[in-house]
Amino acid sequence: MIEITAIRMEGGTGHEHIGSLQWRNIQTGATGQSTRQAIVDWLEESKANQAVVVGNGNRTYVGVRRPTGRPKYLSTFANGEWTDNLLALPRF
Question: Which residues contact 17 (CB under 8 A, 6 or more apart)?
Fold first, then answer.
């Protein structure tokens, strides 16, 4: 399981999206940086691969959204609803 710790936006005004993410492996403490697509691929590779955002002592799970006609993207899922916790993370 990884914790997403920061995001980098790209794409410019009006079309900004998360381009890359910094993360920390919760079990090993290892850290890294990956593109949005690499995290999407990793999450889809196995149900054992999980990512979270931690805030206020709570873990919110990160999932892959699959909008019709648009690229897949990441979003958090809490209390049965998709949320935007990723956008509240620090930028790098």
Answer: 9, 10, 11, 36, 73
